[in-house]
Amino acid sequence: MSDLSQRSTRGERILVVGPSWVGDMVMAQSLFITLKAHDPDCVIDVMGPKWSAPMLERMPQVRRAIVLETGHGETGLRTRWRLGRSLKGEYDRSIVLPRSLKSALAPFFAGIPRRIGFTGEQRYVVLTERRRLDKVVLDQTVKRFVSLGLPVEGTSDAIPEPHLQVDRVRQEALRQAHGLGQRLIAMMPGAEYGPAKQWPLAYFRQVAEAMIARGYQVIVLGGPKDRNAGEEIRQGLEGAINLCGDTTLTDAVDLLGACEQAVSNDSGLMHVAAAVGTHVQAIYGSSTPNYTPPLTQSRDIHWLNLSCSPCFERTCPLGHTRCLNDLEASQVIATMAVD
C-alpha cells in the first residue's frame, strides 16, 4: 500500500470518476458534501480531465485530483489501464458519474471492490452495483450525482449547494492586473454546447450599457473561443473589459467571486458563479432550468418555456431560436435591481 493510502484511512476511501463538463463538475461537489455529511472521516479523490484539477483544489471535501490524460471523447484504453493499475489497493468504493463504459474502466482495472454507477453501455462487468436511473424521481443532474452516493437506489438527500473557495489574495491581484474597480458585473456569453443555448450578443451588450450607466464596470469572461463574442460586447463601451481567453478557470472563480451579479447562458461558468455566491441572471434557451438550474437561492431565471422548449438541441431545429431571440434584454435589465 502506498504512503498516500496509509494516511487519513479511518473512513472509507472513495474514488469518484467525475464528469467532463465544467458545470457538471461544479454540481458534483453536492455529492462530495453529501459523502462527507454521511461519513466525515471518508477520503474523497476525484478522477477527471486535466482542466478540472485546479478547480477541484477549491473544493475542501476533495483530498486530491487524479488527472486522466485522455482527450474528450477518446477511449484511451491503455491510459485507463495504466492509471487503474497504479491505483490498485487505494480505494474501498468508486462512484462513476458518467454513464459511458470507458468511464468505468479505470476503477475496474484498479480492482476497487465496490464500483457504483447507473446502468448504461453494457457495463455489466465493470460495475459491481448498476443502478437504474429513474428520470422522474431523479429529474436533475445534481440529484443523480448525489443519489449514487446514497445506500438506497433511486433516492436523493436534500441537495447541498456547491461552494467553491475563493482565493482573496489572488482575487486582489487580478483586480490590480486588469484595472478593475469595486463594483463589477460579469457577463458570460459563451455556450460550448451550441448556438441554441447562446443569447444574442446584442442583448448582452444592451445589458452592459445599462449596467455601465448605473456605475458598474462590466467584465466579459469566457475561453479563447469566446474572444470575438466578448469583443462584440465590449467594443466602444468605456467601462467594459473583454477578458475572454485571458484568464484561467480558477481566475474566473476568483473574478466571479468579486462580482455582484453575473449574466450568463446555461453554461459551466454560470454554475461557477452560483458556487461562489454571486447573484446569477441565468438565461435558458434549448435547455431547461428544471434540469440544470444554478444551485443557489441568489438567482433569477429567464426562460420563456415555449411550446417547443426544451429541445436540448445544439442548433434550433425550427430555425428561429425564438426561445432566446424573444427574450429581450429589457427583461433582464429590469430584474437586475441595484442600490
UniProtKB/TrEMBL annotation:
GO terms for molecular function: ADP-heptose-lipopolysaccharide heptosyltransferase activity. The keyword Transmembrane does not apply. It is an enzyme of class 2 (transferase). CDD domains: GT9_LPS_heptosyltransferase (cd03789). GO terms for biological process: lipopolysaccharide core region biosynthetic process. Gene3D superfamilies: Glycogen Phosphorylase B. Keywords: Glycosyltransferase, Transferase. The keyword DNA damage does not apply. It catalyses: an L-alpha-D-Hep-(1->5)-[alpha-Kdo-(2->4)]-alpha-Kdo-(2->6)-lipid A + ADP-L-glycero-beta-D-manno-heptose = an L-alpha-D-Hep-(1->3)-L-alpha-D-Hep-(1->5)-[alpha-Kdo-(2->4)]-alpha-Kdo-(2->6)-lipid A + ADP + H(+). Its EC number is 2.4.99.24. InterPro entries: Glyco_trans_9 (IPR002201), LPS_LOS_Heptosyltrfase (IPR051199), RfaF (IPR011910). One of its GO terms (cellular component) is cytosol. Belongs to the glycosyltransferase 9 family. This is lipopolysaccharide heptosyltransferase II. It comes from Kushneria indalinina DSM 14324.
